[in-house]
């Protein structure tokens, strides 16, 4: 990576965020000269963002820490269409009410990572529905659609993937890249936003926005604004797995969808070869300390993983919650005690009155997807009740299994633990 003069690109390069930039020299010059404004867009397809979105959130955070202004574009408008990038299949269309609800819960995530207010570098959060909802579609296509080549659009990976796999790509989704390009143009007009950032799957969409501004300027016989694109690699783990996906599903950033304990555990279970990279991307430890942690081997590598888990969790959920999760892990794995801070699943008294089948208990606790999976776990000696291996799949949990703290500890393997509270 080239040497940069601006604090922003120097920091981004040192931490490993940069994969591609449309004009690194020009962007570096702009970032050194004064405050620049950059944006990343997030559609409202779920009630929460997930760890896969975290690298882009960290990019906005680094931008602001370097003295620049971040814009979060919540895609209230584009969510109505659905981004085909990185998708094998058509997204399910959401209702207006679902989009509004998802937008509300997603907004709270950014408040933990960015500073909002009225300063020149304060973060701004806006909804692209603000300008997309009022577009007259025929006029929009006449003014902007004519600047897009179908041949070029068909060459984008997001489109080629679907066509090669004979998965349907609706005309509605095909319009998404035009609207995202228009977002960039509109943000430049409204906020003097000159940089769009995102994952590498957004490269084509970002370039579209830059080219649209150039063509609109040429049509109006005006000099185009200096717009730039910067992407980061789509993260996979050292073993090739998609970042943020586990056997239990997505690693959500909202506590209502994933407990702080499970979030901490996700980072604690990082593969050995990913520790240094993830420390640079997802924590704010000094690079010198990260270099030291990278040299640890054997059992000491686990200490680096615990530090990664606590630091990453502190950014997303606060220092107190992160340290509480770390203490719970210590109690659970190192001292052998059942911490009251483990995730707890309440069981209605009537369901427990006559005994609760152990297979059903593991399903209710979310440690198994079905009775069949729970039975395999028991037969494989991977299921524990109160830290004791169970071998009888017909076991009934009764009041006799309730410990002094009023719970029953269920364990699936060495790393997944839940407390049942009758």
Write up this protein.
The chain has 422 residues and is of the alpha/beta class. 45% of the residues lie in helices and 14% in strands. The protein is built from 19 helices and 15 strands. α13 runs antiparallel to α14 and α18 packs across α19. The protein is globular, with a radius of gyration of 25 Å. It starts with 6 loop residues before the first helix and ends with a strand. About 1% of the residues have low confidence.
Question: Secondary structure elements and their pairing?
Answer:
Blueprint: H1 7-15, E1 20-21, H2 24-33, E2 37-43, H3 51-65, E3 69-75, H4 96-113, E4 124-127, H5 129-132, H6 137-143, H7 150-154, H8 157-164, H9 171-174, H10 176-191, E5 193-199, H11 203-219, E6 228-232, E7 245-246, E8 249-250, H12 260-268, H13 275-282, H14 287-294, H15 300-317, H16 319-334, E9 344-346, H17 349-352, E10 356-357, H18 358-364, H19 371-379, E11 383-385, E12 388-389, E13 396-397, E14 408-412, E15 416-421
Parallel strand pairs: 2-3, 2-5, 3-4, 5-6, 9-15
Antiparallel strand pairs: 1-6, 7-8, 10-13, 11-12, 11-14, 14-15
Helix pairs in contact: 10-11, 12-15, 12-16, 13-14, 13-15, 15-16, 18-19
Radius of gyration using CA atoms only: 25 Å
Secondary structure: number of strands: 15
Overall spatial form: globular
- Portion in strands: 5-15%
Put simply, the count of helices is 19
Give the % helix.
Answer: 40-55%
Characterize the largest beta sheet: strand count, sense, and whether it forms a barrel. 6 strands, mixed
**Any low-confidence stretches, pLDDT <50, length ≥5?**
86-90
Query: Could you tell me how far the N terminus lies from the C terminus, measured between alpha carbons in angstroms?
Result: 57 Å
Counting helices, strands and paired strands, the structural category is alpha/beta
Q: Which strand order spans the largest sheet, edge to edge or round the barrel?
A: 1-6-5-2-3-4
Overall pLDDT confidence: 85
């Amino acid at each position: 990576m080239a040497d940069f003069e601006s604090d922003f690109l120097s920091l981004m390069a040192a931490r490993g965020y940069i994969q591609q930039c449309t004009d690194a020299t020009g962007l570096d010059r702009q970032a050194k000269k004064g405050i620049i404004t950059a944006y990343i867009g997030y559609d409202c397809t779920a009630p929460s963002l997930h760890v896969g979105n975290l690298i882009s959130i960290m990019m906005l955070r680094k931008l602001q820490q370097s003295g620049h202004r971040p814009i979060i574009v919540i895609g209230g408008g584009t969510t109505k269409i659905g981004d085909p990038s990185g998708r094998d299949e058509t997204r399910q269309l959401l209702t207006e009410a679902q989009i509004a609800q998802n937008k509300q819960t997603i907004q709270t995530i950014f408040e933990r990572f960015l500073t909002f207010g009225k300063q020149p570098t304060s973060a701004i959060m806006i909804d692209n529905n603000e300008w997309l909802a009022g577009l007259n579609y025929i006029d929009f296509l006449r003014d902007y659609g004519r600047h897009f080549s179908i041949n070029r659009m068909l060459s984008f990976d997001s489109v080629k993937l679907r066509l090669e796999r004979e998965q349907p790509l609706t005309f509605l989704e095909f319009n998404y890249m035009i609207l995202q390009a228009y977002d960039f143009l509109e943000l430049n007009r409204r906020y003097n936003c000159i940089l769009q950032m995102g994952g590498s799957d957004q490269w084509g969409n970002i370039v579209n926005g830059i080219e649209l501004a150039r063509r609109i300027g040429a049509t109006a016989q005006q000099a185009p604004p200096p717009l730039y694109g910067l992407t980061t690699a789509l993260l996979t783990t050292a073993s090739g797995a998609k970042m943020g996906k586990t056997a239990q599903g997505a690693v959500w950033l909202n506590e209502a969808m994933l407990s702080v304990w499970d979030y901490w555990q996700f980072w604690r279970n990082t593969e050995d070869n990913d520790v240094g990279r993830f420390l640079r991307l997802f924590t704010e430890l000094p690079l010198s300390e990260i270099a030291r942690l990278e040299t640890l081997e054997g059992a000491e590598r686990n200490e680096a993983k615990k530090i990664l888990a606590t630091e990453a969790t502190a950014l997303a959920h606060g220092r107190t919650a992160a340290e509480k999760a770390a203490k719970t892990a210590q109690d659970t794995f190192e001292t052998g005690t059942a911490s009251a801070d483990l995730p707890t699943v309440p069981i209605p008294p009537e369901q427990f009155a006559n005994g609760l089948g152990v297979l059903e208990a593991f399903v209710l606790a979310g440690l198994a997807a079905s009775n069949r999976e729970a039975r395999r776990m028991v037969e494989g000696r991977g299921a524990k009740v109160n830290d004791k291996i169970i071998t009888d799949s017909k076991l009934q949990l009764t009041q006799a299994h309730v410990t002094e703290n009023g719970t029953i500890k269920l364990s699936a393997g060495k790393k997944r633990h839940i407390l049942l509270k009758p």
